[in-house]
Amino acid sequence: MTLDVINPNAAECRYQTTLNSGQHWSLLVRRDIQMTLTDLSGGSNVGMLLYNPTQLSEKYNAPDTLKCQHTFKLTRGHCLYSDMGRIFCSIIEDTFGWHDTVCGNSHSSHIQARWGARNYQQDRNDWHQNGYDSFLVELAKYNLTRRDMAANLNWFSEVGASDDGQLALKRHSKKDDRVTLRFEMDTLVVLHTCPHPLSEAGHYPRTSVQLELMQSQPMAADDPCLNYCQENQRGFENNSLYHFGLQTLYRSMP
Amino acid sequence: MIKESPRACSTAIQRDIVPAGDYYIQIIKQGQTVRLVDLEGNQAADTLFYSANDPGERYSATDTIREQGNLYLTAGSILKTNENNDLLEIVADTCGRHDTVGGACASESNTVRYDLEKRGMHACRDSWMLAIQEHEEFGLGKADITHNINFFMNVPVTPEGKLTFEDGISAPGKYVELKALMDTIMLISNCPQLNNPCNGYNPTPIEVLIWD
């Protein structure tokens, strides 16, 4: 499905694409757009990083996201915070229930050790891409480097910890599981569909994820993300201040 | 894991006191050992490490957590870089557990966590910002201020996925000791946090000792 290029801002306008495993993707996503990721095959993983396009040093911050919502897992009702006390986006829908943000990325050494070395000449686009290199490639397009990388999200992967801190990749999403993010400020979204770094699948996962963009509904007073905790109400206050400042800036421009 | 150090304080080549709320930045040479001492107990030492030869390579909480398959740091933990290389090893620890999930306090995150009017309170990330401004010779910028270690801090994760902040695993004189596996820049914010029990609402000094 393609956008209506004559009127791309129409409320009913949507965009969707399918990402097979081992791909990378990015877009500057405007505030008031929502993104739905759907696992079309089951067993997918989506690594994600978020940046403020007007000030790229402002980026997704996993510790601030976790501690201000007193949670280790990410699911519906949670907001994804920047290091500047603001909310990039809210998780307004989630059929899976537990997404990881502490295990980071696979490196090429992990992928080779688990599934063997593969090369492009032999395997074409079925070669084994890894999460770290995928982010590097996509970040370079915005003049960002490894220094700008942060602890990333891993959608569709549940990683739990025992009382003594032992980690386990417990579960991947099933076919048709989906998560929807409502963007609360303009955000550079960078993602890949490489395997979770703790994946012990027998073969390099061959999965597919649908990515869909559409206009979001305005946030209501009873919004579950706004009201998840008082911390989120203050986070949205910080966003309001940010947008107030920007509007003032734009109004003063000739 | 509790493991005492064989090193005597009298043989250290350098000893420094880091006052409450201050920062400390220092190069630890490959093969040297550094000890952080919680002098009065309940303090949190929010610490970042970088390769001294290439600050773009630095301590990575996610690589460390993933490679050791465990959330908590203690004796035997290898601290990994963003390139998945070995940076330091914790060789002694009388505390037993250190956090690397909870991150550092910031004036911005304090507005979210506690109150919009707490933005003016001193915070760890401000200490790091001052450190990189006052020490341009290390070549660090805001993008390098990342997901850190909180020595002496206990942030348990429950099997149900809750994150909690707990007091009570450190005490006066407890220490952690690290051996540098490459030339390393160590950047500490001796946490000024007054809003949660990570330092008992009472920031206190730490001591840093270095051995060849």
Automatic annotation (TrEMBL), chain A:
Stretches of the chain forming a coiled coil according to its record: none
One Pfam family linked to the record: DUF1989
Domain of life: Bacteria
Gene Ontology molecular function, alphabetical: exonuclease activity
Stretches assigned to the DUF1989 domain: 18-188
TM ranges: none
Keywords: Exonuclease, Hydrolase, Nuclease
Nuclease listed as a keyword: yes
UniProt-recorded name of the protein: 5'-3' exonuclease
Species the sequence originates in: Oleiphilus messinensis
Automatic annotation (TrEMBL), chain B:
TM regions (residue ranges): none
Residue ranges of coiled coil: none
Residue ranges occupied by any DUF1989 domain in the UniProt entry: 17-185
Name the record gives this protein: Urea carboxylase-associated protein 1
Top-level taxonomy: Bacteria, Pseudomonadati, Pseudomonadota, Gammaproteobacteria, Oceanospirillales
